[in-house]
Amino acid sequence: MNAQSPHQPGAGRLVGRDVPRVEDSALIRGRGRYVDDIAPPGLLHAAFLRSPHAHAAIRGIEAVAARALPGVHAVLTLAELGPHLTDTRLVVALPSPAYRLELHRPVLADAEVTHVGEAVAVVIADTRAIAEDAAALVEVDYDPLPAVADCVAALEPGAPIAHSGAASNLAAELTLEYGAVDAAFATAPHRFAERLSIHRGGSHSIECRGVLARHDPLDDRLTVWSSTQTPHTARRMLCDLLGLPEEGVRVVTPDVGGGFGPKLIFYPEEVVVALAARLLARPVKWIEDRAEHFIATTQERDQLWDVELATDGEGRILAVRGQMIHDHGAYTARGVNVPQGAVSAMPLAYVVPAFRVAMKVAATNKVPVTPVRGAGQPQGVFAMERLLDRAARELNLDRAEIRRRNLVPGDRMPYATPLKTRGGMQVVLDSGDYPRCMAMALEAAGWDAFPERQRAALAQGRHTGIGVANYVEGTGRGPFEHVSVRIEPSGRIVVATGAAAMGQSTHTMLAQLVAEHLGGDMSRVHVIAGDTAAAPMGIGGSNSRQAVLAGSSAHAAALRVKDKVLHVAAGLLEADEGDLEIEGDAVRVKGVPEMKVTLAAIARAVAGAPGFAIPGGRGPGLIAAEEVVIDAMAYANGTAVAEVEVDAETGEARILALTFSHDCGNALHPRIVDGQLMGGIAHGIGNALFEHMRYDEEAQPTSTTLADYLLVTATEMPPVRILHMQSPTPLNPLGIKGVGEAGVIPVPAAIAAAIEDALSPFRAHVTRVPLSPVDIVALIDPAAAA
Amino acid sequence: MSTRRIALTVNGTRHEAEAPVRQHLGDFLRGTLGLTGTHLGCEHGVCGACTVLLDGRAIRACLVLAVQAEDRAVTTVEGLAPSPEALHPLQAAFCANHGLQCGFCTPGMLTTLEEFLRDCPDPTEEEVRVAISGNLCRCTGYDSIVAATMEAARAMREAAA
């Protein structure tokens, strides 16, 4: 990667700089503490028995032999767990008027299984190996039922019904629309229609999921360690399901080995393990293996888009309309946010006067679909960019030029779109200069000179192509994240937050922001993230939100503590507040370093002594808690340009160069920003060329190992160049926008366009991702090739 | 379940312990010896997270049985640094280049690269990519790992000179 060092005019002593990460010291030595590294005394291990059928009725479960196996402590089904639960289903769906079916997932299936991998029973044993042996001895009497695998077929009359109690497979329907769409189409000089098939796969964090629960009978208190992105949500679910007060459940996220979306969901295994620990009065741990991850962790999957673009004679967009069918899977494990996010992302970068896309969300007998890094946005961007490429080709316009004519211009910022977020708030593009950002990428990629390169390559028999795609991403979804900043009487600074770390440097980010104002020494700052005992409220990790929300709260809380520190110190030092600065562990008079008082001394002074007034007169303690509320999302943007070479014989597509320009406002830590983008770009390459979660016609998964489901490795990564533009958002005090998902969003569209361009001599028309070599060979029209 | 008592050296320390004959080395290192730095990412030999050195050679701890390590020397991530305070040059370079994010693939990357740099002390970037092409990372996009390895190789060559 050749990353330009971003211009960071507002950089502070720590913020905006590439300071060492606080996470690294432990992780690099193998001293991290992931959930599977925790082994309390008396630990038992859980293994889940999962459905081998995509759809079946359960006629009976027989566990006598399993229970008799030495080392087995319990075999639990819903029959055993139900009496201890307030509800046998996980009611987690985000609110929406769109639902047509209620598809709450059961804690364990008891009457019907609706996807391969659905948990039916759990075995608790001395070791995981014994638990798995016993699970194999449980006999479930299944009566197989017709299964529906394909989301398009699912909505056709006579299709098998995914849930036998349901009247149809239409799980939800909603339409995003504004403007006079049909009138615009009726009079438009040009209309371009495409049918696009867009697949995304799973998250495949290298650490699978895991949960460990320990019950303390003395206080009737559960401690649950979970590799979750949303510990406070997990606590609420556990309290609700087990009928416990909030102080009765503590959820802790230890080190998490990657999240990428699916770990934000609350899963059946979390409540089953917690309840098992309570019932057996022993700690219980379940660690998902990769085979389970493929069939039990939520994923994204298929969408079919039938969309149409209307333009004027110059390629200016007049309207967009169409329908999209979305594969929802067997249950509502999150909501309709993936299709909604996909369609919302479609028009966002461009001036689109009228828009209507109707979504049909289809229940299928497959793993539930919930957000994976990008959360639908790569699909919406793919649809828009494919339409623009098609229009450019037919109008004989340069593909960059048609985009230039339609991107939201920089001088119209802030730009109020007619779109609304899922919470009903208007989408206002807050800042940025999209045309300039695209121009940066085009220039760096040598877009204008590419036709010459392409001709030269073709003269040597090499098929090369270039493609461009733009995105605008809603980041920093509100409303808030809790952060408290406290200086202990030892002088140690403790930061506690509802934000949850899963590898994206959350501890470093918060330590940087707080130390910036409280002495500049990050080693004095201790960050507690993802522990419900340390933060009363929290929302957690999703939607590229934590730097924006938790960062803003940390900044505000640190400033309040700083203000109090200086006020109290001024009294203790008999100096003017304006003459004081915090440096390292002390407040000192500027220019007179020997006149100082330590943070510890100040903290002790305001800790209070019985009968004595608190110095400073502003109350006790050096602590501030903030929940800065930011409802509006900060819109980041960027452009990807991919240059590829395609082997027309084998269908191999090699990316020669990938240029990525973006604008996430200020960068708190430029190197971490690059790291987030690079990870996203790699994920995007996977979605374009490699990652395919396959099922057969009976909804049996067929890509169930990492040898079948291909993740990008180091040898597939092309030379990547990242270019930074910085338009600070006015929506938060730091001027930042989220960056955790950005990289993935435009990359599949840019690569697809480049492959189509490379195969233009063969009249190739790319309407799908991922594109395997087999798919690419199929794109070639043999007549054109001749 | 049948078990066997095995003796082996791990990170320079001699251990004797009971191991179920069907247990893989990864579970033995993590569970029996408490060396949780070795991570299990797929348990089918593809992701490379569990890579450790067996008599100096990188192997997947999920594909080797614990009993196969009898009388042999294992090095895990915990054994790479010369002392508890100091870091191996690869570890230092990973930190300096943001070569890790969540840290889960990191131990396997480090052990794989330790062997690689012993065999190939002055590699090209392409050779580094091939060397880690059996190690999956979902966070970094690999470039920072490649950069870190090149930096570590330089540092190790200079230290040896």
UniProtKB/TrEMBL annotation, chain A:
Reported cofactor(s):
Mo-molybdopterin cytosine dinucleotide
Please list the residue ranges annotated as the Aldehyde oxidase/xanthine dehydrogenase a/b hammerhead domain: 29-146
Q: Which InterPro entries match?
A: Ald_Oxase/Xan_DH_a/b, Ald_Oxase/Xan_DH_a/b_sf, Ald_Oxase/xanthine_DH-like, AldOxase/xan_DH_MoCoBD1, AldOxase/xan_DH_MoCoBD2, AldOxase/xan_DH_Mopterin-bd_sf
A single GO molecular function term of this UniProt record: iron ion binding
UniProt keyword list: Molybdenum, Oxidoreductase
Q: Which Gene3D superfamilies does the entry link to?
A: Aldehyde oxidase/xanthine dehydrogenase, a/b hammerhead, Aldehyde oxidase/xanthine dehydrogenase, molybdopterin binding domain
Recorded protein name is Xanthine dehydrogenase family protein
Q: Which organism is it from?
A: Roseomonas indoligenes
TrEMBL record, chain B:
Keyword DNA-binding carried by entry: no
* Stored SUPFAM superfamilies: 2Fe-2S ferredoxin-like, CO dehydrogenase ISP C-domain like
What CDD domains does the annotation carry?
A: fer2
* Residues covered by the 2Fe-2S ferredoxin-type domain: 4-80
Taxonomic superkingdom = Bacteria
Keywords, sorted A to Z = 2Fe-2S, Iron, Iron-sulfur, Metal-binding, Oxidoreductase
This entry's Gene Ontology molecular function terms read: 2 iron, 2 sulfur cluster binding; metal ion binding; oxidoreductase activity
From the Swiss-Prot or TrEMBL record, give the protein name: (2Fe-2S)-binding protein
